[in-house]
Amino acid sequence: MCKYKIKRKQGIEIGTSVVREIYVVPPDILDYPTSTDMVVREGSNVNLRCVAKGSPEPSITWRRETGEPLKLLTGEEVGSIDGPVLNITRVSRQQMGPYLCIASNGIPPSVSKRIMLIVHFPPMIWIQNQLVGAYEGQQITLECHSEAFPKSINYWTTDKGEIVPQS
Predict the structure, then answer these.
(1) Burial class, 37, CB count within 10 angstroms (exposed 0-12 / middle 13-18 / buried 19+)
(2) For residue 98, is it within any domain?
(3) pLDDT over threshold 60, residue 4
(4) Would you say residue 147 lies in a domain?
(5) Under the phi-then-psi rule, with left for phi > 0, alpha for psi from -120 to 50, and beta for the rest, what region is 54?
(6) Domain that residue 50 falls in
(7) CB 102 within 8 A of CB 82
(8) pTM above threshold 0.90
(9) Pfam families annotated for this entry (predicted)?
C-alpha cells in the first residue's frame, strides 16, 4: 500500500490519497502436497488432494479425464466436484483411470494435473458353457474368461492337480 499527499503549488495540502497495488497471479498447482498417481486395493477409501496457489486464491474442481461421471456418497453421479480433496469411498474397479484436478482463479490460464488411480482387484472368473459333453477321444474346447488387475495367469488343471497344456 502506498500513501501520498496531494499539494497545490503554494504548498497547501488539499487531500490524502491511498493507492493499493493489487497483484494478480494465475493459478499454479503445487507438486506437494498434491497427490500423485495412486495404486489401491478395491474396496479401500481414497483421498485425492490438490493444492494450488495464485492471486486471487484458485478454486479446485475435480473430474474424470474420460468424461465419465463421479459418484457422490449418496450414489448420485455428477460431472465434477469442487474442493481441494476428492474422497472416494469403497473404490471399485469401475473408478480406475485418470482424474483431473483443475485450478482456476479467473486469471488465465487455468491449469490441471492428471492423477492416475489404479485399482487392484482379484480375479473374477466366468465360464460360458459350464457343462460340456464329449465322447471318449473326442476333442473339445473349454473356454474360461477372467478379469483382474494386475492381469491374472490362467490355466486348466486335471482332477489330480496336473496342469493341462494349452494347444
Answers:
(1) exposed
(2) yes
(3) no
(4) no
(5) left
(6) 25-121
(7) no
(8) no
(9) Ig_3
Give the whole-number percent of the chain exceeding pLDDT 90.
Answer: 68
For residue 113, give the C-alpha cell: 494435473
Does residue 75 or residue 69 have the better pLDDT?
69
**How many structural domains does the chain have?**
1
Task: Answer for the pair 6, 82: CB distance below 8 angstroms, yes or no.
Answer: no
On whether residue 88 sits in a domain, the answer given is yes
Q: Domain holding 76: CATH number?
A: 2.60.40.10
Mean pLDDT of the chain: 90
CA distance 96 to 20: 48
66 within a domain of the structure (yes/no): yes
DSSP state of 81: E
What is the total residue count of the chain? 167
Count of alpha carbons within 13 Å of 139, Cβ hemisphere only?
2
pLDDT (tens digit, 9 = 90+) per residue, 14-73?
666 666 778 899 999 999 999 999 999 999 999 999 999 999 999 999 999 999 999 888
What are the grid coordinates assigned to 60, written together?
Answer: 479446485
In this prediction, residue 1 carries a pLDDT of 47
CA distance 110 to 94: 28
